[in-house]
Structure prediction request, 225 residues.
Amino acid sequence: MDRDSLCQKIGHQFSQPQLLQKALTHRSHSTAHYERLEFLGDSVLNCVVAKYLFDHHPNLPEGDLSRLRSNLVNQHTLYTLAQGLGLGELLLLGEGERKSAGFRRPSILADAMEALFGAVFLDAGFVAAEQVILRLYVPFIEQADVQSMGKDAKTQLQEHLQARKLLLPKYSVIATQGEAHAQVFEVECEITQLKIHTRGEGSSRRIAEQAAAEAAYNLLIQTKP
Prediction:
């Protein structure tokens, strides 16, 4: 896939191509990387999703809206969106990251996705960024179970297991990668009685645990008789 195809998929053509270039550049490749754009894109994304939820769920209280947003604006959803766009194929990575399959790493793909939103915002303003974000996010939001998405993945998994009178899962850090200021944690979620083992990655142990719990919960739902 090329960059023109990416622009078609997100519904935005860049008038400043250098912004797209930067959004696709990891710090291991160049000093002109995407981290500042990622910071900006994260804020724009949160604002757009918060406004959409506020408008479309007028009866939800603030706490439920916040939990719902956090379950939509997270590494897993961003990673899923990036995979769907084929973003990993376009990332510019240093040799080390390329050899270690950084173009498939959830944390890198999620960060690049946010950087892409930030790049659209700088290129054409808030309305353009909002259109791109909603184009990608609305299908996720419309398929969401609002009641269950008000809870985080670990809570959903715990309640599901308790309802079946099963023991709670165990979480273990099985690997850490990267330098101290930019570590990636890999956590395993084990449900012994069901012989289920799932893994998740994240920039903190908490995020990685949530990713592993979500994978386990999804597996349980899919195999539920």
The CA atoms of residues 120 and 162 lie 44 Å apart. The two ends are 39 Å apart (CA to CA). The mean pLDDT is 87.
